[in-house]
Amino acid sequence: MEMAIMQQPSSQRRVYTVKEIAEILGISKNAAYDLVKSENGFVTVRIGKTIRVPIESFDEWLNNR
Predict the structure, then answer these.
(1) Alpha-carbon dihedral of residues 9, 36, 27, 29, nearest 10 degrees?
(2) 33 and 18 Cβ atoms separated by less than 8 Å
(3) Structure confidence at residue 41 (pLDDT)
(4) Does some domain include residue 2?
(5) How high is the mean pLDDT in each 10-residue block of the chain (65 residues)?
(6) Structure confidence at residue 40 (pLDDT)
(7) Is 17 left (phi over 0), alpha (psi -120 to 50) or beta?
(8) What are the two backbone dihedrals, phi and then psi, of residue 17, each rounded to the nearest 5 degrees?
(9) d(C-alpha 14, C-alpha 55), whole Å
(10) Cα 35 from Cα 22, distance rounded (Å)
(11) pTM
């Protein structure tokens, strides 16, 4: 019996980079790194040395500001 593999389309991104957070907020990249490393109220995910922020979590945090 074959098992279908469900994959999310690559066009549907689920995370922001720190650079994207900086651009969205209009702050420097260093300030964005400080924000994501602090107790900020949104989820961050570390993959090795990289930091990613789930779009849903960040947008919810931003909308409640």
Answers:
(1) -80
(2) yes
(3) 87
(4) no
(5) 53 92 97 91 93 96 92
(6) 80
(7) beta
(8) -90, 165
(9) 6
(10) 9
(11) 0.77
Q: What is the pLDDT of residue 39?
A: 83
Domain extent for 35: 15-63
State the Cα–Cα distance between residues 65 and 63, nearest whole angstrom.
6
Total domain count, the chain: 1
Side chain identity, residue 32: A
The label of the residue with tokens 């074959």 reads 2
Side chain identity, residue 43:
V
- 10 lies in a domain? no
Tokens of 33: 């790194």
Amino acid of residue 31: A
**Residue 32 structure tokens:** 């964005």
Return the structure tokens found at 58.
């960040």
In this structure, are strands 50-54 and 45-47 parallel, antiparallel, or unpaired? antiparallel
